[in-house]
Predict the 3D structure of the following.
Amino acid sequence: IRYDWTGADLVATGSSDSTVRVWDSSTGQPKAQFRGGPGHPMLGVDISGGIVAGCGTDKTCRVWNLRTQRLLHQLAGHSHKITCVRLFHNEKEVLTGSADRSMKIWDISRNVYRQTVTFRHSSTSNCVDVSSDSLTAVSGHMD
């Protein structure tokens, strides 16, 4: 679950039914629903402005336009399930963490990943975040 930090009163949720849903937090009403890979639960979500991201057990991160409800990017490159996702504040980059013990920064203006950091211990990244100046990324692990 993730609140839209831009103040739009929106919340994104991921579900075991392979969907990401966006809710109006002031009314509790659904605004949009996005589908991931069939049979693959959505493990992480993020929302920022007009962009929604969801990742899951199909090793893919999807990025949608909230207004048009169209799929913008399908980011594949992790070798195991993607457990968490965070949009950078400029909405041009996405950070993903995976059970393959790596984090990837994706430049969604070009649909390729820019940088990969591989952890040297056997630990899945369970959560990620990016600083407001986009210079620092952090991840949380159970180890």
